[in-house]
Amino acid sequence: MRIDGENAIMLLDDARLVPFMEDQQRFLPDVFTLEFDFYLHSWDDDFYETGEYPYSDYMLFFFNDRNGEYDITNMEILEFNMDPKGKMIACYYQSGSYDRRDASVDEVDFNYGGWSHFALSFNKRALKIYIDGVRIINLPNMAAPQRLVLGQG
Q: CA-CA distance, 37 to 119, in Å (whole number)?
């Protein structure tokens, strides 16, 4: 699909994106960045015409287990959710020792009707997430993830 002449990937119906890597079970190094632009169209017109919000949640999952099953007790996981219709962001980290940390941001000023920039930085144990240059998540101590999945739900 194209938006304003730019190529874009549209996520629909619980879509999941997994980078195609040689080793699908472990492909993230101890230091990495992830950046992409995302577009949220203006919801006012759709909401007033149909009564339905045009958004679902957008998710980023990090796994350090070997197969991504949630019921494995020794895995660590990070789940990052952007909820444009609720104007909020939530981030959940849980380790195998059941250390769970939650971070959420209410009243996020998303750029409806335009492009925004997502940037994530991981440096051995510290994770930072930015939207349009503003840091919204800071986890100073977490296990290094092995792989990621982007999705919509």
A: 9
Return the H-helix or E-strand segment holding 50.
helix 43-50
CATH class for domain 2-152? mainly beta
Tally of CA atoms within 13 A in the half-sphere of 102 that contains its CB:
4
Rounded to two decimals, the pTM is: 0.80
Tell which residue, 86, 153, 78, has the closest CA to residue 120: 78
Structure tokens at 84: 């444009």
* CB neighbourhood size of 92 (10 A): 14
Low-confidence ranges of the chain (pLDDT < 50): none
Residues 34, 131: contact at Cβ < 8 Å? no
Contact 57, 153 (CB under 8 A): yes
7-46 pLDDT tens trace: 888 887 788 888 887 877 678 899 999 999 988 767 665 5
* Residue matched to tokens 């503003």: 134
